[in-house]
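for the recovery benchmark. tokens below, seq after
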């Protein structure tokens, strides 16, 4: 660990105000050093949204090296920290986060977690998964996203629509025969969803298909 990184980590740990914490986490995130991962993950649970956003950005920038620490330290009790961690996993898109995203999208009690997980399911980097595993897992993602389009919270349904469109784009290179199922679902949402924003996003997805 470099002396500069150690100093940045110490600044986060010793911050005595929300403003100082935000500035310290931003600086640490911008350093983009793998030694900062544990501290950035800890910052997700500090009840400081600005610092959490900065930490998420830093973890996403670090990429796949941050995935295993995120999975190991995923907070099962602090739903805010869990939501931020899932946002980081979603932003990285590494297939190792798939099981967490599938489970969270379907079952988590916090709408912020379900929304983040649904969005993340549309951003899986399939080329990083063993080719033999891609077809079955794409079908699992499709099944989960279709399920999530019935979520009681409209922001979660909106996220599922965005993810369905993204998945459809990926399927062009893998399983184009599944695309009609997405098209039919988006058309159904555009006609029947109770929230105008969700309906409009489904129409956009259909038009860009």
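predicted aa per position
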């Amino acid at each position: 660990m470099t002396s500069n990184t150690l100093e940045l980590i110490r600044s986060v740990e010793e911050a005595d105000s929300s403003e100082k914490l935000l500035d310290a986490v931003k600086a640490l995130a911008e350093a983009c050093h793998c030694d900062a991962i544990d501290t950035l993950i800890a910052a997700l649970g500090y009840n400081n949204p600005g610092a959490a956003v900065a930490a998420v950005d830093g973890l996403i920038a670090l990429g796949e090296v941050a995935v295993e620490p995120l999975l190991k330290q995923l907070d099962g009790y602090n739903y805010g920290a869990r939501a931020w961690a899932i946002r980081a996993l979603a932003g990285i898109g590494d297939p190792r986060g798939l099981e967490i995203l599938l489970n969270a999208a379907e079952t988590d009690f916090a709408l912020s977690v379900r929304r983040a997980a649904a969005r993340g399911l549309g951003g899986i980097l399939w080329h990083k998964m063993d080719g033999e595993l891609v077809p079955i897992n794409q079908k699992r993602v499709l099944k989960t996203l279709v399920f999530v389009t019935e979520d009681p919270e409209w922001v979660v349904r909106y996220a599922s629509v965005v993810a369905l469109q993204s998945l459809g784009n990926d399927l062009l290179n893998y399983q184009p025969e599944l695309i009609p199922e997405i098209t039919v679902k988006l058309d159904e949402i555009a006609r029947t969803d109770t929230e105008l924003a969700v309906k409009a996003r489904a129409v956009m997805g259909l038009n860009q298909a």
